[in-house]
Design goal:
This protein has 242 residues and is an all-alpha fold. It has one domain: Substrate Binding Domain Of Dnak, Chain:A, Domain 2, CATH 1.20.1270. It has helices at 2-97, 107-132, 134-168, 171-219, 224-238. The relative contact order is 0.11.
Length: 242
């Protein structure tokens, strides 16, 4: 009987030993899962900060481009008003000059007014092209801001899901948080590549149209005909008897 009891006792010890190893293994797996979840939460936190910074950056650039477009639009309106006023003045001169069989207006003066009308029309068209060149870059920055906000939302939800996974010790819940982080990274990379390409092309178009307008304005600042007319009026005003 003593031998039988000894064997039974040894069997119990063996089972207890195996049970202890199983509990230790489960505890080690839980520790590893907790480590993975912690790393995931850290990465999601970084993604959250990056998305937040990019949203703020896109919003700042968007406001800047809107202000620049308003400035270009103001120049377009100014040139358009000049064109309309010069055309009305030319219409009045035309009506007076050709009211009789013998036109009384000087051809040089009429020609100067006609060229002014054409000049203001060209400057108005150039300013309009400059204004519309901002449309693409503004649209790109608006869409980029929305995409980065989507990435920000995914990172926030991912952190919440990872926290739940840490409490529940559930691997499936943690994997869902990992998927959200992966989607967030995909949105960030895709948006950055798209914005970089589109903005480069748009900035080139803006620079070209702005340079075209400024060159027209500087070249048409004061023509020789205008200077001649101004000198003629000064001589007339300063002549004796006036």
């Amino acid at each position: 009987m003593s031998i039988a009891h000894a064997l039974e006792h040894a069997e119990h010890i063996s089972h207890s030993s195996h049970g202890g190893h199983g509990a230790a293994g489960d505890h080690a797996k839980a520790d590893r899962l907790g480590t993975y979840i912690g790393v995931t939460m850290a990465i999601l936190g970084v993604l959250l900060a990056v998305c937040s910074a990019l949203v703020g950056s896109e919003r700042t650039v968007l406001v800047q481009k809107l202000v620049e477009q308003q400035n270009a639009h103001a120049k377009y309106q100014a040139q358009d008003v000049k064109h309309r006023m010069s055309f009305l003045a030319l219409s009045q001169v035309h009506a007076l000059a050709f009211a009789t069989a013998q036109p009384t207006a000087k051809k040089e003066d009429v020609l100067s007014m006609v060229r002014s009308v054409e000049r203001y029309l060209g400057e108005s068209v150039a300013a309009k092209e400059w204004t519309t060149s901002y449309d693409t870059v503004i649209k790109v920055h608006m869409e980029a801001q929305e995409e980065f906000e989507h990435g920000l939302l995914l990172a926030e939800i991912g952190i919440v899901i990872a926290s739940i996974a840490l409490l529940m010790k559930r691997r499936s819940v943690w994997l869902f948080a990992v998927v959200l982080g992966g989607v967030c990274i995909f949105i960030l990379v895709r948006t950055l590549l798209h914005v970089g390409h589109e903005v480069k092309e748009s900035e080139r178009a803006i620079a070209e149209t702005k340079t075209k307008y400024e060159q027209m304005r500087s070249g048409n600042k004061s023509t020789e005909e205008e200077n001649k007319m101004v000198r003629s009026m000064l001589d007339w005003a300063n002549s004796p008897g006036r």
